[in-house]
């Protein structure tokens, strides 16, 4: 057998271009000096987020790569004893972790050889009152944690009751979370937040269940000692496009995600409900998604904050985009820059239910695409209907594909509820071929039942 040194360099480089995943290239570079040199000559292709899963085993978690189609173990820094769940992420391998129900919390770089760990506060600053005990549902960042002006936003719940709030801190600076000075940090039933450099405001955009936007921006910091945030309501004209509308009359819950794409702010709306033949008890399954783009109307004088407004405009399709949705970690990509991926797919996490109710729900993590036969298994050339080999399923992340079937006549559906409903049917089920039923979408679940509890997954961008 010829050695690597005998293979022409251009041929070796051509073969290595088929390795699109950053993790695969790093592993290959550790084999020998020749491969390390060859990998170093290659430009890094566009990377998709990894599905990062917490593990009950100390000092270890798992991630799944859609570019390679496999699952691997990843080690935590020695300063982090365990990660019971993840609650946010940031570009460059940063992830927000929680050890235990009420922390401690920290920002960890899983790709750093030095094991960077930035502790986060465990309490909220409440003047003249006892410090309330809390737990963090979601964390999102304005910049990487080591940046000088980085601000972290957190969605806080209180163990003793009270409305959830959004609060802020500067990693490595503040010992407690602080609420906005102008505004109490309450935005109603909170769904998601993102740091967005918009046309009018640059700051943290938060959305509630009424699809109203609130923007939080830092004021001048007095003497560098105190973080001061102000809250501005961003009026949305025309009301909530999804809150009052349920086309199929079957969605039991609605969740919203904010994601930036092509310089615009998108709202991805997830409708979940009873999933049909695979559902039990209170299980909720993804039934359909809707995507809206925020269109800003500037005031004539561009003066007062309250004179600006916005509206949500529904997008008929994703126009060649691939979207990953998750609280505090949503991302959008152009399918044209990815090998083997089609536009129009939405990747989702099992975060529609409140964490305290997670035990009442089955794992619902997967890929959604409208229409039958559109969705291919990501990262692999040709899909198979079922993965029955136990050894293969432990290595591969994919489970059998499901079909979202519309029963009844969709043209007669009304906002008040008609005869049309949605249900989940396995592709191998004979009911899927019923000519009287319309397949409106396909869902490819990831490792349902093979990896245990999905509580606390997150998208990690390498």
Automatic annotation (TrEMBL):
Top-rank taxon, per record: Eukaryota
Keywords of the record: Signal
Pfam family of the protein (one): Beta-prop_KIB1-4
Domain KIB1-4 beta-propeller: 73-368
Signal peptide per UniProt: 1-23
Protein name: KIB1-4 beta-propeller domain-containing protein
Organism: Eragrostis curvula
InterPro entries on file: KIB1-4_b-propeller
């Amino acid at each position: 057998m010829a050695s690597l040194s005998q293979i022409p360099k251009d041929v070796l480089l051509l073969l290595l271009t088929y390795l699109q995943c950053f993790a695969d290239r790093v592993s290959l570079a550790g084999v020998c000096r020749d491969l390390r040199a060859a990998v170093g000559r290659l430009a890094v292709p566009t990377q998709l987020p990894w599905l990062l899963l917490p593990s009950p085993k100390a000092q270890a978690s798992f991630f799944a790569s859609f570019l390679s189609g496999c699952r691997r173990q990843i080690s935590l820094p020695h300063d982090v004893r365990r990660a019971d769940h993840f609650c946010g992420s940031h570009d460059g391998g940063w992830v927000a972790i929680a050890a235990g129900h009420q922390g401690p919390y920290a920002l960890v770089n899983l790709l750093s050889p030095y094991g960077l760990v930035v502790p986060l506060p465990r309490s909220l600053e409440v003047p003249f009152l006892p410090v309330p005990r809390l737990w963090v549902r979601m964390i999102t960042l304005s910049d990487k944690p080591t940046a000088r002006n980085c601000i972290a936003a957190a969605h806080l719940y209180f163990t003793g009751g009270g409305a959830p709030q959004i609060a802020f801190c500067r990693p490595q600076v503040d010992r407690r979370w602080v609420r906005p000075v102008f505004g109490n940090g309450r935005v109603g039933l909170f769904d998601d937040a993102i740091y967005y450099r918009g046309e009018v405001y640059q700051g943290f955009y938060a959305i509630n269940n009424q699809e109203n936007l609130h923007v939080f921006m830092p004021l001048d910091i007095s003497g560098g000692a105190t973080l001061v945030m102000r809250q501005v309501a961003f009026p949305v004209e025309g009301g909530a496009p999804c809150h009052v509308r349920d086309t199929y009359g079957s969605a039991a819950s609605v969740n919203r995600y904010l994601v930036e794409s092509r310089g615009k702010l998108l709202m991805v709306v997830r409708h979940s409900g009873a999933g049909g033949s695979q559902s039990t008890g209170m299980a909720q399954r993804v039934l359909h998604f809707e995507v809206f783009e925020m269109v800003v109307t500037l005031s004539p004088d561009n003066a007062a904050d309250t004179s600006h407004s916005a509206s949500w405009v529904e997008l008929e399709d994703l126009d060649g985009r691939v979207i990953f949705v998750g609280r505090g970690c949503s991302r959008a990509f152009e399918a044209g820059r990815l090998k083997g991926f089609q536009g129009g797919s939405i990747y989702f996490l099992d975060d529609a239910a409140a964490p305290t109710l997670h035990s009442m729900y089955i794992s619902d993590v997967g890929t959604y695409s409208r229409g039958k036969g559109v969705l291919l298994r990501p990262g692999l050339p040709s899909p198979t209907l079922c993965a029955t080999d136990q050894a293969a399923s432990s290595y591969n992340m994919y489970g059998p594909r499901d079909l979202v079937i519309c029963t009844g006549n969709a043209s007669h559906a009304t906002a008040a509820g008609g005869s049309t409903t949605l249900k989940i049917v396995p592709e191998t089920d004979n009911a899927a071929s019923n000519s009287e039923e319309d397949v409106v979408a396909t869902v490819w679940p990831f490792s349902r039942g093979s990896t245990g509890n999905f509580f606390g997954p997150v998208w990690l961008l390498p």
